[in-house]
Amino acid sequence: MRRRLLRPERTPLYNPQLLPEEALIHLFTAHVPLFERLIDDLGRADRQHVPPHKLIVGPPGSGKTMMLQRLRIAMTRGGELADGHHPIAFPEELYGVSSVADLGEVALRRLVGALPRRQRRQVITDGDPWAALTGFAQASDQRLVLLIDHLDRVLDRLPQSEEWTLRELLQRSHLVVVGTSTTPIASDVDFGKAFYDPFQLHELRHLNDRVALSLLGKLLRGVAPDGALDPSLAAKVRSILLLSGGQVRTLMLLRRAIGDRRRWTVSDLVETILDHYTPRYRAQIERLPAQWQRVLAALAWGWHPLRPADIAEVTGIGARQAASLLGRLVREDLVRKVPQGPGSGRTGYQVADRFLNAWLVMRRGGEQRQRLRRFLELAEEVLLTEGALEIPRLKRALDRLKPSVGAPPDRWAPELVKLLESAGSAATSSLPR
Q1: Which residues partner with 203 through β-bridges?
Q2: In this structure, is residue 142 part of a structural domain?
Q3: How many CB atoms are closer than 10 A to CB 223?
Q4: Strand 335-339 versus strand 143-148 pairing type
Q5: Are 92 and 149 in contact (CB under 8 A)?
Q6: Does the chain have fewer CB atoms within 10 Å around its N or its C terminus?
Q7: Per DSSP, what are the bridge partners of residue 326?
Q8: How deeply is 61 buried, as exposed, middle or buried, from its count of CB atoms within 10 A (0-12, 13-18, 19+)?
Q9: In what order do the strands lie in the sheet with 143-148?
Q10: What's the pLDDT tens digit per position in 224-283?
Q11: Does 170 lie in the same domain as 48?
Q12: Cβ(3)–Cβ(222) under 8 Å?
């Protein structure tokens, strides 16, 4: 049963709630330490005082929705939180919610819909939905845990006059919110705003190689019955993780791309995955003003961190305007600053989502695309041999990937720096400083 459910075409990429609970528990390998910490925090919270509201922050595809579903299961299957906690899992899309009353109506419907029929009649469904939720919590002596995906979008749609109304509801001891967001809520760091400091922030970081390979091994059961990846495939996977970061959705896509075919090159696998991301990345870029698009594309095609002066030279935009546009892209979480050299005071910029960077490079084609393919092939070889490459040949290959002759490491692409770290101390120490 489990093997059939985990066939690539049957594994949902965007809706983990569609997975049967046993399959979701089986696949839940990513972010286990954070899951255990959330369980511990919620379980130890004094139910007579304001509960510890949580905000799980991470980029798209990092496993936020799966985390909420795993928490829901922990409260319904006899785990530590099953006693005294009642989960209310909101639908992922809440486009119709534009007021605190709307949010309460959704919560009440989800509560009633999940109760056994004999208990539904005990819930008062007419009148104030929040009063009905309070009544149920008090009668059942349980704390209601509201699991809300994309909480930032919900809060953005609330009228400003209702923000403090929701804040007051969050002060009630029988309600706790666990929400997700791609970025921290803006007013969470703005003193005097309604949502200043009500949430404890928890970041979903990229998966390390060990966890990512473990998850992929589970996804590959049937192709790899023991869950172990052969060295060649493991090197390809680690090369892709080096480029993309360890995100759960990328691993799901990688599982689909691999299928039963083990002879694909690492470049073919990356291009197949990037093809799936095309609609999202295209929509993300096309919503930007034309000047922003030019700067973002120039950063991506440069691959290595660039300074405003570099952007000005490539695009023809003035250096001051380039610096201003880079600042706006940083605020949109599309670009991030990179300090260039200790004590230099100089700052470089790079595309924050490295897979978006790769997508822009691949879409352009030409020399940039070939350079990225060469990097992936070199990464696969280095990671397969654990740095046992012939040193002179490794140095020549790396020289072709650096931004310029003699460029210091703080001017290199982060993927290149990580590859050097993986190439072994012998190879690294022999490279020019």
Answers
A1: 57
A2: yes
A3: 16
A4: unpaired
A5: yes
A6: C
A7: none
A8: buried
A9: 85-89, 143-148, 175-181, 53-57, 199-203
A10: 555 567 888 888 888 988 888 778 888 888 887 877 555 678 998 898 889 988 998 999
A11: yes
A12: yes
